[in-house]
Write a structure and sequence with these properties.
With about 500 residues, this protein is mostly helical. The protein has helices at about 5-25, 25-55, 75-105, 110-130, 135-150, 160-190, 195-200, 205-225, 235-240, 240-265, 270-275, 280-300, 305-325, 330-360, 370-375, 375-390, 395-410, 415-440, 455-470, 475-490; strands spanning about 60, 70-75.
């Protein structure tokens, strides 16, 4: 009975647990509940992915109402993989939350933080698993509203400004998506994603459908922070509490990229998206700009959270570049980078949480001399940085290798060279941190800083270790990513 209802439980468990976390009032009690919920979500995700890979897609009818009349939860290789990313990162980041949240958030607001965290998890999982286009918008709002709360709980007063800025930009993005979905409903009379895909096929010449496509494209691009619609992201990451930064950086934009994949490849179809509408060339241009502008701006940042935020703009560029190819290899690179970037950024932001815990800040100046006083934390930063650059034996190399292969398959050798050039820019901003930590000396009280507690180090190293493990043994991640890419393009196997 429980096994057959796992798709619903994936969303229902964190949704019902969120108000309970608030009622527990004490931060420690709320943390225990949140940790158990995250573990349950991860276990369900693993089960769903195994089932999909073994027996094919899962269709779950909410309330027993058959689609397209009822709401359907639909799980295939694509979103099963994203569910695993979201729940896995949510679980590991939550391991570090008790120590970090106790340091950064007032006692009377800690239960509110865990409530918002669980609601955000609910929204992200819901967006990923639902087979209903309007439900994507509903869950998008749940995750967004809770994200604004998470960001605003930061100690710096600028966190409130960052949350408000994200509120404005996020609302515009969600409104565009809603208008686009409304236009599709007006044209087809359905909101079920698979039914939409079927009914839209003969409507490629419809101006309403084309306008709906444009609204969805802009709205989703805002949500995933595609250059130049990324302006909300740096402040949101920089001034949020460390745990919120780690969770959001590793999950939120990845889910938005999934929404783009789902709409462009499943709903509209690859022929409409890349032939009727000139999407490929637009995405490729914006992706390349994102890679170079994001990396260049990151080089000049003093706040390391902002540095990593602009790095994320560049890394999103790599994902979008893979999508723009509209080939199995290109999509494999994009889906791989969803997973790999979550590991990189999750590990790096948890390492920053450790730095903040000991030094009270995350500017480059705070990194001076930490190579001696916080060796394990700094080694985690180095490994995460190497993965961002794309050094062999790290997951970053695997993603970029497939991206280069995808470009060369299409004869775009110059794009392959641009990918490599973008990696060289990453060397510069990673070196800034290495230089401060290992080649500069700490001053005053900073010289007496101790290594971070294990409660912060262990979760960071789980993710950093995964950067190495999945960089060496690529069979699982590349296999799932290729299966997902083939299913998006309607290719068997």
């Amino acid at each position: 009975m429980i096994a057959s209802n796992l798709p619903a439980l994936q969303v229902v468990i964190p949704l019902l647990s969120a108000p309970l976390a608030l009622m527990l009032r004490r931060g420690t009690h709320s943390w225990v509940l949140a940790q158990l919920v995250c573990i349950a979500a991860l276990a369900i995700s693993i089960n769903l992915l195994q089932t999909v890979l073994a027996t094919g897609p899962i269709s779950y009818e909410m309330g027993g109402w058959a689609p397209p009349w009822g709401i359907e939860y639909y799980v295939d290789a694509v979103n099963a993989f994203v569910l695993l990313i979201v729940s896995g990162i949510g679980t590991i980041v939550m391991l570090a939350a008790r120590t970090s949240v106790a340091k950064e958030i007032a006692g009377d607001k800690q239960s509110l933080f865990y409530t918002a965290y669980l609601l955000c998890l609910t929204g992200l999982l819901g967006i990923t698993i639902t087979g209903d286009a309007f439900n994507i918008f509903v869950f998008l709002e749940i995750s967004s509203l809770s994200t604004y709360i998470l960001i605003s709980l930061g100690r710096d007063r600028r966190a409130l400004t960052a949350a408000f800025q994200y509120l404005i930009m996020g609302t515009i993005g969600a409104t565009f998506i809603l208008i686009g979905v409304g236009m599709l409903y007006m044209s087809t009379g359905t909101l079920n994603i698979l039914d939409l895909a079927e009914r839209l096929q003969p409507l490629s010449d419809s101006r309403t459908v084309q306008a709906g496509f444009a609204f969805v494209a802009v709205g989703v691009s805002l949500k995933l922070a595609l250059f130049p619609l990324h302006l909300w992201l740096p402040n949101a990451y920089a001034y949020a509490p460390s745990i919120a930064s780690a969770f959001l950086a590793a999950t939120a934009t990845k889910v938005a990229v999934y929404v783009m994949l789902r709409f462009f490849f499943t709903v509209f179809g690859v022929d409409f998206s890349f032939e009727v509408m000139p999407l490929g060339i637009i995405l490729a241009i914006l992706a390349i700009l994102a890679i170079f502008v994001g990396s260049a701006v990151a080089i000049f940042q003093d706040n390391v959270k902002r540095l990593l935020a602009y790095s994320s703009v560049a890394q999103i560029g790599y994902m979008i570049l893979g999508i723009s190819f509209a080939t199995v290899t290109g999509l494999t690179a994009a889906i791989l980078h969803l997973f790999n970037h979550a590991l990189m950024k999750g590990g790096l932001f948890l390492a920053l949480a450790a730095v903040f815990y000991r030094t009270g800040g995350v500017s480059v100046a705070h990194f001076r001399g930490l190579g001696k006083t916080m060796p394990w934390t700094m080694f985690a930063v180095v490994i995460g940085g190497l993965s961002l650059i794309g050094v062999p034996l790290t997951v970053g190399f695997v993603s970029k290798w497939y991206l280069v292969l995808g470009a060369l398959e299409l004869g775009y050798w110059w794009i392959a060279l641009l990918v490599l050039a973008g990696s060289l820019l990453a060397v510069i901003y990673v070196w800034k941190l290495v230089e401060a930590a290992y080649f500069q000396t700490a001053e005053g009280d900073a010289a007496s800083v101790r290594e971070a507690p294990l409660s912060l180090l262990v979760p960071a190293w789980i993710l950093i270790g995964a950067n190495i493990y999945f960089g060496i043994d690529t069979s699982l991640t590349t296999g799932v990513a290729r299966t997902a890419a083939a299913s998006l393009l309607g290719i068997g196997g």
